[in-house]
Design goal:
By secondary structure, the chain is mainly α. The chain is about 80% helix and about 0% strand. It has two domains: about 375 residues, Na+/H+ antiporter like fold (Up-down Bundle); about 55 residues. The chain contains 20 helices and no strands. The N and C termini lie far apart (about 55 Å).
Amino acid sequence: MTFGAHQDLVLLALLVAIAALLVLAPILRTPYPILLVLGGLALGFVPGIPTIALPPDVVLVAILPPLLYSSAFYTSLRDLRQNVIPISTLAIGLVAATTVGVAVAAHALIPHVGWGPAFVLGAIVSPTDPLSATAIARRLGVPRRVVSIVEGESLVNDGTALVLYRVAVVAVVSGSFSIWDAGFRLIWTAAGGVAVGLVIGFVIAAVRRRLDNPPVEVTIALLSGYFAYLPAAAIGVSGVLAVVTVGVYMGWRTPELTSVQTRLDGAAMWQILTFVVNALLFGLVGLQLHHILNTLSSRSAGELLGEAALVGLAVIAIRIVWIFPLSYVTWLFWGRSESRESAPPWQRPAVVSWMGLRGAVTLAAALALPLQTDAGDPFPSRALIIYLAFAVILVTLVFQGLTLPFVIRTLGVEADHLDEKEESKARIHAADAALARLEELVDEDWVRPDTADRLRRQMGFRRNRFAARFSTDDDGAIEEQSQAYQRLLRELLDAERAAVVALRREGRINDDVMHRVTRDLDLEDARLDA
């Protein structure tokens, strides 16, 4: 067997293993990022598996922009505005507190770690990753505000953390540090990143307004994260905040700029792309540990485990200590006085404090550490920093991620069903608008009376169905009628699909015709919620 053939088989085995883990994730009821990290970790120690070093630029430049853009695009701007105070205290205050707290712990308790490398480590492990936490939260059902706060925090804190990271790395590499320079750099990079994002978003919106070509528009959407990140990075401002800004901006503007076909194609593209990219990324994260441990062969296993536990515990404890008092301080100064909200139950900050999972940004920042200082010396404690950053990812992602369902159930935190209520309100409002428009058009020559009457009954039934959800006297009869109708309609659609596929199988129609007809049937099926 040649060397090339061996490498091909190894790659095939890795892809098969990743696919198997993805299949097992729902069966084991485990979030796929956790299972992929653990699977990659195990595969890394299998004899014959080559050393896979993940280049930092692949994550920071190639992978991060589209993932951030997708998350920001589907983030509610209204929820961000409503939760701006708690999100700010987490995305700015907690990031700074984690950076300082971890630096103090590492410098004091880990031998031979100076202040500079300690602050670098603190900045690296301070940003959170929302993927696993929010997936678990949505599956188990927690209040929407909890999910909104954690998602908003993860979108903004990457920018804050990477700014502190750059300041700390520059201080170590150059051997000097200025608090004024650091403060100015923080303000400049944050404000500049937001400004770049707004400008790029305005330009993209102006271009897409003039297009009516779904493949081109979806491609522009895919590249939008890069359009924001690369110029921001080139002028020295936060590329992360630029991507987040353009994502939120385009998420707000897209419904008025695009056609139905573009929105359908775009939603499908983002769903598949983010899933595949995250699956590969978390699998590669697990494969890194073997390579990292090889660079720390001079340290004993006991030392490495103890230091990993120390930093992981510090990250978790700082988050808990920060969130609990701040949740009530912010309510005391803003929530109670402005919106007359009652004090949040203690279970809510408890769940938020346990959702501080780390992921791709932490790994990328660690791997991006320079090899040498300006003086030509090796970057101090570089291998140890990378190892400890990876350990924090493992501790938070695996330990906290696996125990989060238990924490949510034990605390009795339940969903508030606000999304369902708002969806029902939106559907009632939409049906009212359709009925009003129908009455405006009913006298037009091209509107047949029987057609108008049929649509009037259809829209009226739809409105009454969702309105019944707000009625205390509803006995469920209209919902049961709707479910029975949808079940029958789905049976008919299945029969139509089977008939069309049979025509293709018999050679009476070609594949293009089959795909067009079945796509229309699938879209009609997708509208059913039974």
